[in-house]
Specification:
- The structure is a single chain.
- This protein is α+β, with helices and mostly antiparallel strands and 242 residues long.
- The chain contains 8 helices and 8 strands, in the order αααααααβββββββαβ.
- The strands form 2 sheets. Strands 2-3-4-7-6-5 form a 6-stranded antiparallel β-sheet, with helices on both faces. Strands 1-8 form a two-stranded antiparallel sheet.
- β6 and β7 form a beta hairpin.
- α2 packs across α3 and α3 runs antiparallel to α5.
- It is elongated, with a radius of gyration of 27 Å.
- About 3% of the residues have low confidence.
């Protein structure tokens, strides 16, 4: 199932069991599922408006007071069909608008590449503790699907998987550098839907570097104080395109 079909089915039914199982294998899809389910719960809570106590009696009393004593043809007013449904249509329109606004902002709002990279690292932070080596041949089998190849990496690779980097299928690697685990995102540059932003970024724990390439962007993230320029050069020099 491609990403478009996954999103279409998820928005139609956030409880789809098949989608839940597929999302367990893909952290990016799992994150999207969580967002949609949270919004679905929020929307459901918003629509559960409790009926005020005694409302029915008050409405009936109101109708009795306003009902005319006699009914003549002159008093009959034929409302246009669309005016009879003003309240339900307005309510439905409000809900539809809320859904459209949410998915046009929360789901599709563009992030700077650095912001998204940090978010991705935190979401899969447990992967930084992995120690079992992933053979470079396995890495290149995955990278070949994006049209690339790595001659080497400056450290033992301990994590290699595809990821959804803001709408673009990318390769997510972690290798063990002299300064600790380093995350590498290789993001094909032909369909990027994020804003480039600064080429250097950081927060209180990690710093990152972005190299914009003709075929792909290489984004490195490591703990503060790591000489990213050195590693960026080594990764870029090793990366070839088939």
């Amino acid at each position: 199932m491609d990403d478009l079909e996954f999103r279409r089915r998820l928005f139609a039914d956030p409880s789809d069991e098949q989608l839940m199982n597929e999302a367990k294998q893909d952290p990016a899809k799992k994150r999207l599922v969580d967002e949609v389910q949270d919004f679905d719960d929020m929307l459901g809570d918003a629509l559960k408006v409790p009926v005020p106590e005694g409302l029915q009696a008050k409405l009936l009393a109101n109708m009795d007071e306003q009902e005319p004593k006699t009914h003549s043809a002159d008093n009959v007013v034929n409302l246009a069909w669309y005016k009879r449904f003003t309240v339900p249509i307005a309510s439905a329109a409000s809900v539809a608008l809320a859904v459209m606004v949410y998915f046009s902002t929360a789901v599709h709002a563009p992030l700077y590449a650095g912001e998204h990279a940090l978010e991705h690292v935190y979401y899969e932070e447990s992967a930084l503790t992995l120690s079992k080596e992933v053979n470079l041949q396995v890495v290149n089998e995955k990278l070949a699907m994006l049209g690339g190849k790595l001659e080497s990496l400056p450290g033992k690779v301990t994590y290699a998987t595809f990821c959804n980097f803001k709408g673009q299928r990318s390769l997510h690697l972690i290798f063990q550098s002299d300064h600790g685990p380093m995350t590498v995102f290789i993001v094909p540059s032909d369909k990027n839907d994020y804003r480039q932003g600064d080429t250097q970024f950081s927060d209180s724990r990690f710093s990152g570097s972005i190299n914009k390439g003709a075929n792909a962007d290489t984004i490195l993230v490591a703990k503060l104080g790591t000489p990213l320029d050195k590693y960026q050069g080594e990764v870029n020099n090793s990366l070839q395109w088939l």
